[in-house]
Here is the input.
Amino acid sequence: MTISNISNPSMQLTSSEKALVARLQARDTSVKAHERAHISAGAGVILSGAVFTYQKAPDEKLYAIGGEVTIDTAPENKPEATIKKMQLVRTAALAPSDPSPTDYSVAATASMLQMHARLEMSRSLQEQLLIKAQTPYQANNTPTETSFSKYA
Here is the structure.
């Protein structure tokens, strides 16, 4: 048996095929880094690992040309928790150095949900203050009666 270091002639790539392989290798590296950035920034809101779309190159290898990570954008039961969660969602969505249109959309959704949660907190606080303002002050639980007279 003879082992040869000569490449299989059918695997010799043309210059345009070599250029395509180089572009696909660069895209693969970029896509994987993009999805890793989402995952590393989104601890607690990432629902799945990265799922990639691959393309077979002239060198017979598969290169990632697209990818996605599922992020949990569901509001929480309490507005305070929703505000915190949506900040993390925004951070995860915008973590890559080159956010995609989908990334910007997820970040915008998180901002909107965060704004709604803040509005809900504000309304709740207003209701509490209104109730407090309408309740007469009673020291030691004694009934209060207020009379105003300019001749008292």
In short: The two ends are 121 Å apart (CA to CA). The first helix runs from residue 15 to 41. The longest strand covers residues 62-68.
